[in-house]
Amino acid sequence: MTTSISILFYPKTSARKSLKNPTIYARITVNSKRSEFSTHHKASNKWDPKLGKMTGYSAEARMINRHLDDIRIKVYEIFDRLSREGKPISAQIIRDIYQGKDDEQRCLLEIFQEHNDRIESLVGKGYSQGTLQRYKAARTHLENYLLFLKKAGDIPLREIDYQFISGFEHYLKSEKNCAHNTATKYIVNFKKIMRIALANQYVDKDPFFHWKSSWQTKEREFLTSDELNKLAHKEFSISRLEQVRDIFLFCCFTGLAYADVNKLSPNDIIPGINGQQWIKTKRQKTNTLSSIPLLPTAFEILEKYKHHSCRTEQQKLLPVLTNQKSNAYLKEIADVCGIHKSLTTHLARHTFATTVTLSRGVPMETVSKMLGHTSLKTTQIYAKVLDSKISSDMELLKQQGTLINPKGEKIN
To answer: How far is CA 368 from CA 250, 261, 382, in A?
Structure first.
C-alpha cells in the first residue's frame, strides 16, 4: 500500500471565531489520518485560504511564508527519510520528529516483547508456562495483523486507537477463525500492554476506553453416570488406550487438570484428618492449594500403577502421556465405548465438578476447595442442574400435595 502525505496551513478559528488574528496551524495528513501543530504565527486579514499562505509583499507576509515553506520542506524530508529506512510512518510520528519528540516514540511489538521477556523470567515464580504461551500467541497475532494491514513491522503506541482494536478483533475472528471468547482473551492480553504503556506515559490516553470485553456463555460438556460406567467397565486389548482411560477416570474422580495430574508425585499423597489418603497439591495454573480426599475409584487406579516405572524413574504417581496424545487417544476411546461426546483431558474436570460432586449434593464451597479455585464464581460455572436432579426435586414437590383443592379453593 502506497503511503500518501499532504500538509495544509490554516488559521485555527473554530474555537475562537471572534479572534481577529488567529494562530496559523500546520496539519499533516498521512493515509487519511491527521496530526497538527501550531506554527506560532498569526494570520491577518491578508491570509489566503486557497493558497494556504499570506498575500502581499510586506516584510511580515514574506517572513511568515518563508517559515511555512521551511516547515513544508522539513516535513517532506522527514517523510522521505522514514520511507527510505523502512520505519513506521504516521502523521503523529512526523509531527513529533519535527518538534524534537521522536525519542519518546515507543512501538507496540517492542513493548510487548519486553513484557513477555519479563514473564518468561518469572515462570515458576508467579507465572505459569501456559500464561507465557498465551502472551506469546497474542503478540504473534498482532504481528501478523500488522502484516495483514501491509503496515511496517511495528506500529507506534500513539497510533493505536479504537479502530485498530476493533479491526484486530475482526481479523482474529475472520482471518484466524478464532471463537469469540478466544479472540477476547487475546485482546485482553493486548489491553494489558496498553495499560503498561499508559502507566509509563508512552501514550496520553487509553485506546481501550470505549472497548468492553464480552464473554459468551459456553456449555461445558461432561460425562453422565451411565457414560462413566461404560468407560470404567470397558476392557481394552490395547494397553495405551487402557492407560489413557485410567488417567482420564482418575481426573474424573479427583478434578485434577492435565497439568496437575502430570506433575503429581508420591509426596502429594498424605493422610487426611479422617485417616484416609488425600491429594494435597498446588495448581500449576493459579498456584492455589487443592485438597482432595481420594475416592475409591481414584485410589484403585493409584494402586494399579504402584509398580509402574514412572514411580521410580520419574517420581510421578501415574504414567501420563502428552496432552496432545491423550486427547487423540480419548477420541478413539469414545468411539469404542459408544460415547458421542468430544472427550478431552479437561472434560474430566468438568465431570468431577458436575456428575461426581455437585449433582450428588456436595456443597459448592467444598467443590471449590477441591478444584483449587480462587473464586466461588469460577465454581458456579460448573453448577449445572441435571435432568435427574430436576426430576427428583419435582417428585418431592408432588409428594407435598397440590396447592389447589378439587373445588378450586386455594389451600393455605
So the answer is: 18, 18, 10
> What's the pLDDT score for residue 283?
85
pLDDT higher at 285 or 320: 320
Residue whose cell numbers read 505459569 = 128
262-306 confidence digits (pLDDT tens): 999 999 999 877 778 999 998 887 778 888 999 999 999 999 999
Gap between the Cα atoms of 6 and 91, Å rounded = 9
CA proximity to 64, closest of 45, 39, 84, 83 = 39
**In sequence order, what are the residues at sequence separation of 6 or more whose Cβ sits closer than 8 angstroms to the Cβ of residue 269?**
277, 278, 279, 294, 302, 317
Closest by alpha carbon to 277, among 256, 297, 252, 263?
A: 297
Q: Determine the 3-state secondary structure of 27 from DSSP.
A: strand
Strand partners, 271: 277
Residues in the chain: 412
Say how far residue 50 (Cα) sits from the centre of its chain.
Answer: 50
Alpha helices by DSSP H, listed for 149-214, are 162-174, 180-199
The pLDDT-based confidence of 107 (bands split at 50, 70, 90) is: confident
SS3 category, 50: coil
Q: How many helices (H) and strands (E) does the chain have?
A: 16, 8
Closest listed residue to residue 266, CA positions, set 301, 308, 318: 318
Nearest to 156 by CA among 116, 120, 199, 207: 207
pLDDT tens, position by position, 372-400: 888 888 787 776 555 555 666 677 777 76
Q: How many angstroms separate the CA atoms of 28 and 152, rounded?
A: 19
pLDDT tens digits, 183-232: 999 999 999 999 999 998 888 889 999 999 888 777 778 899 999 999 99
Q: Which fold has domain 225-384?
A: hpI Integrase; Chain A (1.10.443)
A 10 A CB-CB count for 233 gives 8
Cα–Cα distance for residue pair 326/322, rounded to 1 Å: 6
Residue ranges of domains in the chain = 5-103, 108-199, 225-384
Residue with the larger pLDDT of the pair 164 and 204 = 164
Which three cell numbers mark 41? Answer: 504565527
For residue 78, give every residue at least 6 positions away whose Cβ sits within 8 Å of its Cβ, in sequence order, or none. 94, 97, 98
Tell me the chain's radius of gyration from C-alpha atoms. Answer: 33
The pLDDT-based confidence of 411 (bands split at 50, 70, 90) is very low
Rounded Cα–Cα distance for residues 19 and 45 (Å) = 11
